[in-house]
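Researcher: Let's try something more involved. This one mixes different molecule types, so please make sure each is placed in the same coordinate frame as the others.
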Amino acid sequence: MQRSDRRSFLKMAGTSLGIGVLYTAVPAAAASGEIGEMFDFTGKKNGERVTPFTFVQLSDAHVGFNGPPDPLGTKAFERAVEMINQLPQQPDLVLFTGDLTHDSEEKDVHAQRMKQFLEISRRMKVPKIMYVPGEHDAGLDGGTLYREFLGESNYSFDHRGVHFIALDNVSRAKPEVGPEQIAWLKKDLARFPKSAPIVVFTHRPLFDLRPEWEWFTSDGDEVMDVLSPYENVTVLYGHIHRDHEQEQGHVHHYAARSLIFAFPDPENAPEKKPIPFDKDHPFKNLGIRMVHEKVGARPLLNSVAVEDVELTVREFSGINGVQQILKNPSL
Amino acid sequence: MIPALLLLVFSLGAPHKAQADENPRVIEITAKRFGFTPNQITLKKGETVKLRLTSEDVTHGFFLRPLKIDEEIVPGKTTELTLRPETAGTFTTICDHFCGVNHGNMKMTIVVE
Ligand SMILES: [Cu+2]
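Model: All components are placed in one shared frame. Result:
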């Protein structure tokens, strides 16, 4: 089964919600009619078949942050929660990629922010919400408060045949994962075939996106060395408060927008200054976006439509798994 | 307490034991939430300098990817750093050890001319 080993298992259909990203994971073989074979194969290797499901990524709510530039506090976050609850098809899970709270040096204040964050987050009807910390959650106390509320800051789990890995690159106060966690990651991945569908979620980019803005992970290369032999890896992260996509060999990195304020384009902005708040468009750059199932669409391909004209629908698809972006101009 | 010492030499080819290296110019830099003093220094290309980094409050970082500088500045210790930049340019050095509310804007400029 040499060829099957190299074949990928997933297609990822993703829609930028503005409030986050909705992903659909489907077996890649579905399109080519080899689904049975692939399922058998996946079943053997992973113990669980890859079956279609959707999930949402949310990031950077910064509960407790007070403008400028955003005077709206938790409004965008709360709106995002409402919108997710209104999705016609409920996602299986939500991945929250850090900066749940804004930091405070007073432990009580920070704890209060964490409680408020969880109160809002738990309004979501989605059965499974998984978190990683951002530096504003865990940078000052090494993650103590975060762990009190949410448990370990790095872990892995399997969902319908996809392996999810939470990586913590903030709790050491520096932008790094650290040797212990890298050793853990190697061990965690050891049982998987190279073709296994893997989704890593973390706070900071694992590559040098813009180091002088602290948009990097200092030992990100070592993490990538561990991940790169795998053929179906998607890394989802936050921290940069805007969308960004980057390919690195087999690995695809996607950043999500924030729920508080946006940063400018790292390619050409001279400074990391938040984009000013626009009171006429309070969610601009956070971009609240409506997403619907598209009636009659081929399932899982072009399966979303969008009401808000400001919306850019993005289809994440491709034969190589959880990856690639192809813009659909008709939506 | 032995100060952390990191020797960074950026010349290519055989290391030349320049006399200047014996007595490099020393630049003191103080970190304090959320800035460095001075917040700009100017170095000459090929000049060996010694940076002496101290913190007045909490642990800070001193990070500059292009010059491969990645240091911690721990209160009560002096972090010494010898460098000889071989590339001219303006570089932004950041604190990369999370130090509080305005940590994200803690930076200084190193000009190499
Ligand atoms: Cu600092």
